[in-house]
Amino acid sequence: MSPIEKLKAEAVALRAxxxxxxxxxxxxEALERVAKKHGYANWRxxxxxxxxxxxxxxxxxxxxxxxxxxxxxxxxxxxxxxLAEGDFAVARESAFTRWMxxxxxxxxxxxxxxxxxxxLYAETSENGTRYLFWQAPAGVRCxxxxxxxxxxxxxxxxxxxxxxxxxxxxxxxxxxxxxxxxLSAGHCAAAAAHLRRFGIE
Length: 201
Prior knowledge:
The chain has 201 residues and is α+β, with helices and mostly antiparallel strands. The chain has 2 domains: 3-51; 87-196, no CATH class. It is built from 7 helices and 5 strands, in the order αααααβββαββα. The strands form 2 sheets. It has a 3-stranded antiparallel sheet, with helices on both faces. The protein has a two-stranded antiparallel ribbon with strand order 1-2. Helix 1 (3-20) packs across helix 2 (27-37). The two termini are 20 Å apart.
């Protein structure tokens, strides 16, 4: 069981105990309490800290580098990242930023980079744009583009591939608006592992 799964299990147990004692507790409140108990400012900070830990391969098993979830450069067809449901959906809702208008997107990304956080997944809807951030290792190169038409996305993908970056996540929202993240190729496996913690493949 991963550290995040252990903390989630602790939150489930806390919620059950509080509810049994007649003190109703929401799941998100239980996650916040558990995070604070373990010394984190909040659940998002906990996820960011634990999500940055490298995954260890099973004993004796060679590390597997997953294919990028949206890699379709040869055919011109790109598959959007898949989002798992259940606990993963709850984890994503806790980890995503709030919905931001177009005017705030760049400021949020720039501010987060100053903190050592990079957007790893971007999602655009009628509510605006929101991000899932990653405490990236030093030296990673990243490009994030949100709410682009397919033609713009294809051109961005071509330029990023030429610069040695690979597509690690893709969201296609209403009106076929593409939001994508490209990373330097050497960091894609770690990024994919972090995305899987939130049920994004």
